[in-house]
């Protein structure tokens, strides 16, 4: 059944976990009544539908918002930047969200994890994403029809461990500056995109890398001979289906 509106009367509530149930309907608009207390909202793995209500932006102490694996539609609320000082985890993956990734996300100054994969998001990766360079550890935008090039701003991240951009429509080349992530990046997932050009030798500088997936692109040239420099860390390498 639906999430009862009586939950909105729990004005001392700090953590709300309702994940992996059979809850239906939408997210109650009255959830905004919990704006002074609610720090965790986890509704993952339910067949919830409808849009993400804008009142989510009123939850001024929210640190974790997990709405993945539902049937949510519409866009990501542009007011999300109102959570700039508190939100650390934003997981909206595996829904049917559409539209562009709002630049408001770039103002979430405390964000460490951003998961938007497996949606219907269009446009490109916002270049302002680099504004999160001192906090973000995981960026998951795969399985969307995102286009354009991979912004070089991604190379400015100082803590990024996981970069998952597979199964999009990204074009251009793999940024040569990717080697700047040499101390932190453990997983580089760029498979199933029409990325072209050579595999940059800068990949050989990613000394923490365990997973490199470049399957089904349009990469040319050879496999960099320096790849052996990753011998101590690399456990998964997939370069299949490239010309």
Q: In DSSP terms, counting alpha (H) and pi (I) runs of 4 or more, how many helices?
A: 0
SS strand fraction: 15-25%
Overall spatial form: elongated
Indicate the structural class. mainly beta
Instruction: From the alpha carbons, calculate the radius of gyration and give it in angstroms.
Output: 19 Å
**Which regions are unreliable across 5 or more consecutive residues at pLDDT < 50?**
none
Mean pLDDT value? 97
Largest sheet: 10 strands, parallel
Distance between the termini: 51 Å
Helix content: under 10%
Strands of the biggest beta sheet: in what spatial order? 1-2-4-6-8-10-11-12-14-16
**How many β-strand stretches?**
16
Strand and helix order: EEEEEEEEEEEEEEEE
What's the structural blueprint in terms of helices and strands?
Blueprint: E1 15-17, E2 40-42, E3 49-51, E4 64-66, E5 71-73, E6 89-91, E7 98-100, E8 113-115, E9 120-122, E10 138-140, E11 162-164, E12 187-189, E13 196-198, E14 211-213, E15 218-220, E16 236-238
Parallel strand pairs: 1-2, 2-4, 3-5, 4-6, 6-8, 7-9, 8-10, 10-11, 11-12, 12-14, 13-15, 14-16
């Amino acid at each position: 059944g639906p999430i009862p509106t009586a939950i909105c009367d729990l004005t001392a509530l700090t953590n709300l976990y309702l994940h992996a149930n059979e809850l239906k309907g939408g997210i109650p608009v009255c959830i905004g009544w919990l704006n002074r207390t609610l720090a965790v909202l986890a509704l993952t793995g339910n067949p919830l539908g409808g849009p993400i209500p804008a009142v989510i932006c009123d939850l001024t102490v929210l640190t974790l918002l997990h709405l993945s694996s539902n049937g949510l539609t519409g866009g990501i609320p542009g007011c999300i930047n109102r959570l700039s000082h508190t939100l650390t985890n934003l997981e909206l993956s595996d829904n049917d969200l559409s539209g562009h990734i709002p630049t408001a996300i770039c103002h979430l100054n405390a964000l460490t994890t951003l998961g938007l994969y497996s949606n219907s998001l269009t446009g490109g990766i916002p270049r302002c994403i680099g504004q999160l360079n001192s906090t973000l550890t995981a960026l998951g935008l795969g399985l969307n029809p995102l286009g354009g090039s991979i912004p070089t701003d991604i190379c400015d991240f100082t803590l990024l461990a996981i970069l998952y951009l597979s199964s999009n429509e990204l074009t251009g080349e793999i940024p040569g500056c990717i080697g700047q992530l040499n101390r932190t990046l453990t997983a580089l997932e760029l498979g199933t995109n029409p990325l072209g050009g050579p595999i940059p030798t800068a990949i050989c500088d990613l000394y923490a890398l365990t997973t490199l997936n470049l399957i089904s692109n349009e990469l040319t040239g050879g496999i960099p001979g320096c790849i052996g420099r990753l011998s101590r860390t690399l456990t998964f390498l997939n370069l299949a289906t490239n010309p």
